[in-house]
Amino acid sequence: MNGKYVKPGLQSFYSAEQVEAYLRRISFNGDISSLQPNLTNLEQLVRLHLVALPFENSRLHYAADHEVDVSPQYVYTRLVEKRMGGSWCCGHNGLLLGMLRGLGYRVFASSGRVNQSPRSEEARDFTFLSHMVLLVQLEEDHSEPNARNVATDTSSRQQTYLVDVGFGGTGIVRPMLLEAGTIISGSAPPEEHRLIRGMHPDSSFGETEPSREWVVQYRCGLHQPAWTTLYMFGETETYTSDWIAYSQWLCAHPVALFEHNVFAVRHFIVEDISATQGEMPLGRLVMTGRSVRRTIGAESQKIREFATESDRVRILREDFGITVDAGEVRNIKDAAALAP
Fold it and tell me: Which of the residues in the chain have pLDDT under 70?
């Protein structure tokens, strides 16, 4: 990572009691007092976070001010303390950033641009800096069992991993070694993610290594055989004020997916009796438009349809764990509104 070293002992914006409550919220069953900041525990924390806490934008539509608050204490209260639902990228990754620092991990946040045309590499259309990711450095000389082209920085004996629990949908579900060519397994076979170096199509610079950014790509067997770009990101550190500004701007200028949809994603563990070793695959429920789809790998089916706000609010609560107060339904914007 261009010689950057994340210093140890960074202050978390969460107390030790809040970190313990978060671990209970995501059903971490290990010994909290002896939890070590290593790759194995990082993988488990990411997986548990994804399963326990939904990705969603309900506040954009149902809150009176149509704001998605991503300040650390608000996110903690909503997701952990009151269990009212989830958040989008800055809320999720900001929460995990604070928790990881509270557990002794060396981690910082950076920003990225989402590709709004993921089906076409020729017509990539990137947003402004609207996405947030985490970069975690580990002292230990670990290997990544789900990756290929794993390289170790033998000079510093450290490795850097991309962590992202806030992309939703087809995002990564495990730490990803920050090494060009890394490929990791996705939520369920045949999903995979790849990390490469690349340039923004409007970049003013030539194709030189210092000018390149990191690009996360996705493929899924015959369903999506070609690598397609999900987002790109850099290594410049961002801070709480930046995440809040990203979220405020996105609320005022939402991308089409968020503007016209109450969007929600919840991961779940697939009880695969054929899996004799290793972790169980993950599936996901996705609400968009007037339906909910259940996806496991390349298999996807519509499991619910609805036509009224009352049905949507009920499904948000029952299937995604998202609470919308009865009085808030009237606040929904016309673009996404359904019949009462």
Answer: 120-121, 140-156, 209, 272-277, 335
What is the pLDDT at residue 144? 47
Can you read off the two tokens belonging to residue 118? 């993921």
What was the pLDDT predicted at 223?
Answer: 87
> Encoding tokens for residue 47?
């997986």
In a 10 Å sphere around its CB, with 0-12 CB exposed, 13-18 middle and 19+ buried, how is residue 154 labelled? exposed
Q: From CA 321, how far away is CA 317, in angstroms rounded?
A: 5
Tell me: the pLDDT tens digits for 223-279? 899 999 999 999 999 999 999 999 999 999 888 788 889 999 999 999 865 655 678
Provide the token pair at 212: 């390149």
CB 14 within 8 A of CB 113: no
> And the tokens for 250?
């996105």
Of 56, 198, 46, 1, which is closest to residue 113 (Cα–Cα)?
198
Beta-strand ranges (E) seen in the chain are 55-56, 106-114, 131-138, 159-163, 176-177, 183-185, 191-198, 213-220, 224-233, 264-269, 282-288, 291-296, 299-305
**pTM exceeds 0.85 for this model:** yes
Interhelix angle 240-252/89-102, nearest 10 degrees: 160
**132-to-4, 21, 78, 166, 265 alpha-carbon distances in Å:** 19, 24, 19, 8, 17
**Which alpha helices (H) appear in 116-239, and where do they start and end?**
none
List, in order, residues 6 or more apart from 283 with CB less than 8 Å away. Answer: 187, 188, 267, 268, 269, 270, 294, 295, 296
Joined tokens for residue 72: 């650390």
| Predicted local confidence at residue 156, as pLDDT | 55
